[in-house]
Amino acid sequence: MKKTTDVLIIGSGIAGLTLAIKTAHARPELNIILITKVNQGESNTRYAQGGVAAVWNHEKDSYQKHIEDTLDAGDGLCDEEIVRIVVEEGPTRVQEIIDWGTRFDKDEHDYNLGMEGGHSEYRILHYKDLTGFEIQRALMEKAKNSKNITVLEHFHALDLLTQHHRGYNITRVTPNIECYGAYALNKENGDIITFLAKVTIVASGGAGQIYRNTTNPIIATGDGVAMAYRANARIESMEFVQFHPTALYNPAGENPVFLVSEAVRGYGAILRDFNGNEFMHHYDDRKSLAPRDIVARAIDNEMKKSGAEHLYLDCTHLDKKGFYDHFPTIYDKCMSLGIDPMKDYIPVVPACHYSCGGIKTDEQGKTSIQYLYACGECTYTGLHGANRLASNSLLEAMVFAHRIHLDIIQNIDHIQITKDLPDWNKMGTNEPKEMVLITQSLKEVKEIMSFYVGIVRSNVRLKRAFDRLGLLYEETERLYRSSPISPQLCELRNLITISYLVTRSAAMRRESRGLHYTTDYPNQLDFIDQTIL
Ligand code: FAD
Ligand code: SIN
Fold first, then answer.
1. Site to substitute for ligand 2 among 105, 116, 124, 313, most atoms within 8 A of C-beta
2. From atom 14 of ligand 1, which residue's Cα is the shortest distance away?
3. pLDDT tens-digit readout, 207-230
């Protein structure tokens, strides 16, 4: 079955919703369909805690300082022009979501600005430790009031439509690949819809679920990047997977693991080793507030040295009322596990948190495929380089949603919908195969990535990961060809693709830089040849 629309957006996080709202308001006559694979409130955005980094207090802070902090965290690989764009345009975008109803905590006179690792000034706007939840709420409310946005929940995008689906042979070097929309599974009735659109935007978020321990919700399976890769779009810098230093250690196991925001360290909490001693001064002058790659690696090292399963975050010296006012969710979560943050050290471990790499886009959010844009965590814009500065991702999503909407409203009238695309071919598929095979393969992917492609890597480990992923790939492709489509199977397939891309990019980067550390090449190279897949 076919459905046509002017604009097709895949994903209902900050990137997808902001873009939908802006485009809808600028051009009320355009038809905008936004599909999202579960309910629209579920996204990485919803779980953001710390906040949005933006230069707000111009007396103390400056664009230049935010730019320098971002470049420093990015360890030599940021695109300086993109950094400047995001930092300078960011505050206006923040003001817009405030105007749309987003609340941020205030002091007497202005917004209360938080501190996080790698920032040289207080510049994080936040709503307690529920910033993402508040942003998601405000955006959904705003989108609901826009008549030309149709949000379709429980629609799972399967593949992007290109000339390949019209029978042409497309490879990674084919010039002028075009995107005509996407196939999506209606999870409620099993129908596969062919969405035909003038422009398509992938805003499908991260891929944290490739690891066993991740702060990302279970929707974060890298679908957008995997779809774009299959469509032969340019993907970049996938080796830079960010581990957050302080996820709550829970011996009972949880997926996702609960985050203890970096803002807690910004508020004065201190990292301690298993014996209760401070250790961060051995690694960086900024101690517990060094950039994330440094802190996560230091924790990993301390854990390996001592054999401990976790380290500690000490909040016991902090004011209880202030702590509770700022971090009520974290406080309540700890208490529910019998940890009183005001009396006990909080046990923490690093966990996969953010994909710095993704679909390569330009200053307008355009991908290497015509009529296809990408926005948010699924992209590589050049902002984060080899390591994202804390709280820069919500900002990036808003800035690029704005730029993409400008490009769309300027150019969409010259684009025709391409209609000669076949509906999904179900031929050759039989009864659903045992679900347990999918679940088992999923566990294996997570084990492979966690064990061989984690915070510290080596050639031998990467080779093992590569070989094992190869086997899983073959098995899963066979299953995919012979089974009816299920979201679980599609996600497994995408997770294997993402794992492959991360492992391959890691193997190609023969140096240690930012989030990529390998014992075989512990130093940085002078000349950087960006990884292009
Ligand atoms: P998401 O918000 O993840 O939205 C992706 C959407 O795409 C979802 O609706 C999903 O269901 C949908 N989708 C995915 N695949 C498909 C498919 N196949 N078909 C249809 N729909 C699909 N960043 C900050 O800047 N500050 C913070 O304080 C902060 N804290 C964080 C805390 C946590 C616990 C986590 C996990 C992340 C945090 N981040 C933070 C990172 C930030 O939240 C994300 O990078 C950002 O929200 C990503 O937004 P997005 O719109 O790109 O993707
Ligand atoms: C946090 O609150 O520590 C997360 C911030 C981020 O990921 O940017």
1. 116
2. 204
3. 999 999 999 999 999 999 999 999
Per-residue pLDDT of 468-513, as tens digits, reads 999 999 999 999 988 889 999 999 999 999 999 999 999 999 999 9
Test site for ligand 2: of 45, 49, 248, most ligand atoms within 8 A of the Cβ: 49
Record the tokens describing residue 241, joined without a space.
């997977």
Place 435 in a pLDDT band, splitting at 50, 70 and 90: confident
Q: Does one domain contain both 310 and 251?
A: yes
Atom of ligand 1 nearest to the CA of 392: 25
Q: Detail the DSSP E strand segments found in 356-449.
A: 358-360, 372-374, 379-380
- In a shared domain, residues 271 and 175: no
pTM given for the model: 0.97
194 & 166 share domain: yes
d(CA 292, CA 297): 8
Q: Is 299 in the pocket of ligand 1 (CB under 6 A)?
A: no
Is 395 found in the same domain as 371?
yes
Q: Which of 83, 80, 70 is nearest to 391 (CA)?
A: 70
Whichever domain contains 157, its CATH number is 3.50.50.60
Does the active-site annotation cover 292?
Answer: yes
Ligand 2 in reach of 78 Cβ (< 6 A): no
Secondary structure of residue 383 in the 3-state scheme? coil
